[in-house]
Design a protein that fits this description.
Number of domains of chain B: 2
Number of domains of chain A: 1
Largest sheet of chain A: none
Distance between the termini of chain A: 54 Å
Structural class of chain B: mainly alpha
Shape of chain B: rod-shaped
Order of helices and strands of chain B: HH
Oligomer: heterodimer
Largest sheet of chain B: none
Order of helices and strands of chain A: HHHHHHHHHHHHHHHHHHHHHH
Strand content of chain A: under 5%
Chain lengths: ~400, ~90
């Protein structure tokens, strides 16, 4: 084989990424660098935005084979964890291991605040449908109002995978902006006197109740809404590791190393799905705007229900804890504490706000379960289509089991 | 378009009702659990024996330790008090 200097140099030049670099790639590299800047320079959700931004950077380097859609590429393998709904539930297990349900168990009526804050999900759903999205897409956009990143990714990958990137970016960006978004709404919807309300100290809870709680919630919620089982089941398993007291190693692993490893994989895969053709669209701007509205309405919903509870209890509930119902643990609870302390420096709302805050996690998971029940396919036929060569056309329920048994016999 | 928006409103009302129903069920479940299994403070740890009520044999030990510590720290013996001696 003969090589000429000119032909070889030309071949090398044409094999570099520069030869394929398009305008859209450059813009997306800029978006990736902006996310990296926000993570490092502004400290906005750095654990997520940094790997997400770098994933976006890698995916938009031409010929790098790092797009989520590049079959056989590294990040394509990571992306399987998103596509097959593996990574968000594992993150939820870690969050469960980090969560103390004590404040919620001590004051269970605060669960209602977590429910009321889900109004943000549904006002956004209506807004998204009005702007021309179909119901599945609108549900995936609406769940941004749940202020729960893994839930947003879970629902987007299930109902509207083509919108995963802008939904994930909007969800995590606004979660990091909770300290900026919520206080003006909180001050607008509450009076100075309401913000000064001091709440009674929470009563202690038996350890047995703390152990039983995750089991009971799993039983009740997963029977009512089977679609929520991957998220809520893992969440409660993580919490059981924490409370049982007999799985210290699993608890420590789940709340530290496992959640960190999976966060890296999840954020990189979401970043790798941020390509010019999926992100540089009018829909992205709509999603960003709708996401902001979702957070605003969710905060307002929690606060208004907090005011109702304040009236109903004769002023024993500070309405500020309602805004913590948007999830975004524990930042939203810290915001309640800060705004309360601004009104009265001797007011300590943090533990009271943790109740609605973890209730918000359960509430957004239930909202996700409703979307899966209404718009998703919970039979899992598509997910397990790879089994088709083994068991023929997979069918749900008893028929599928019978088919598998038959296949094994023969 | 209007039909879709009205469908979205219907879905929203239905979903919010389901969320409230599920969480109200949980509230009653929690209240029942807390009522059935009330918190019981763990029994207080047995009070440590104060050296002041020690046996005559321990008095000698306290005196010796006090003198040694006073010499080591450069303080008078009445400036500090040994409250507990535990043998391994």
């Amino acid at each position: 084989m003969e090589f000429s200097f000119g032909a070889s140099a030309s071949k090398i030049i044409h094999s570099t990424g520069f030869s394929d670099l398009a305008g859209g790639d450059l813009i997306m590299i800029g978006v990736g660098c902006t996310l990296i800047y926000l993570a490092i320079g502004k400290k906005f959700e750095p654990l997520l935005l940094l790997p997400m931004g770098f994933g976006c950077l890698l995916a938009n380097l031409p010929l790098s084979m790092m797009k989520a859609t590049d079959s056989g590429g590294l990040l394509n393998f990571f992306y399987q964890g998103v596509q097959h709904e593996i990574l968000p539930p594992i993150i939820f297990m870690g969050v469960g291991a980090l969560t103390d349900f004590g404040p919620l168990l001590a004051n269970p009526t605060t669960l209602l605040l977590g429910a009321a804050a889900q109004i943000g999900v549904y006002t956004t759903l209506i807004g998204a449908v009005y702007l021309g999205f179909n119901m599945q897409e609108a549900a995936a956009i609406g769940i941004i109002g749940g202020a729960d990143g893994p839930t947003s990714i879970f629902i987007a990958s299930k109902l509207a995978p083509h919108l995963l990137a802008p939904i994930a970016v909007a969800a995590y960006s606004y979660m990091s902006l909770v300290p900026l978004i919520q206080p003006p709404i909180m001050k607008l919807l509450t009076t100075e006197e309401e913000r000064k309300i001091k709440m009674a100290q929470l009563k202690p809870i038996s350890q047995t109740v703390k152990i039983l709680f995750p089991i009971v919630v799993t039983f009740v919620c997963c029977l009512l809404l089977p679609g929520v089982t991957p998220l809520l089941g893992m969440f409660m398993l993580g919490n059981l590791f924490r409370e049982s007291g007999v799985t210290q190693r699993l608890h420590e692993t789940t709340e530290t190393h496992l959640i960190n490893i999976v966060t890296i994989m999840l954020a990189l895969s979401v970043g790798s799905s941020m390509t010019a053709d999926s992100f540089l669209r009018l829909e992205t701007i709509k999603i960003i705007v709708l996401g902001l509205l979702a957070f605003g309405f969710a905060t307002a919903g929690g606060l208004i229900f907090g005011k109702i509870m304040c009236k109903a209890t004769g002023g024993k509930v500070n309405p500020l804890i309602g805004s913590a119902g948007v999830s975004a643990v524990p930042m939203a609870a810290r915001v309640s504490q800060k705004v309360g302390a601004d009104a009265d420096s001797s007011n300590f709302l943090l533990m009271h706000a943790m109740g609605p805050n973890v209730a918000g996690v359960i509430g957004s998971a239930v909202a996700a379960g409703i979307f899966v029940s209404l718009f998703g396919d919970i039979s899992g036929v598509d997910t397990h289509a790879s089994l088709a060569p083994v068991i023929g056309n997979p069918e749900p329920g008893i028929q599928a089991i019978a088919t598998v048994v038959d296949a094994i016999k023969h | 378009m209007e039909v879709s928006v009205s469908s979205a409103v219907n879905v929203s009302i239905l979903a919010m009702s389901v969320i409230f129903t599920v969480l109200i069920i949980l509230i009653f479940t929690i209240k029942t659990l807390v009522k059935l299994i009330p918190y019981q403070a763990s029994p207080a740890a047995p009070a440590r024996k104060i050296v002041g009520s020690s046996t005559p044999g321990q008095d000698d030990q306290v005196a010796a330790i006090t003198a040694s510590l006073a010499a080591h720290m450069g303080k008078r013996p009445d400036e500090f008090r040994i409250v507990n001696i535990q043998s391994r």
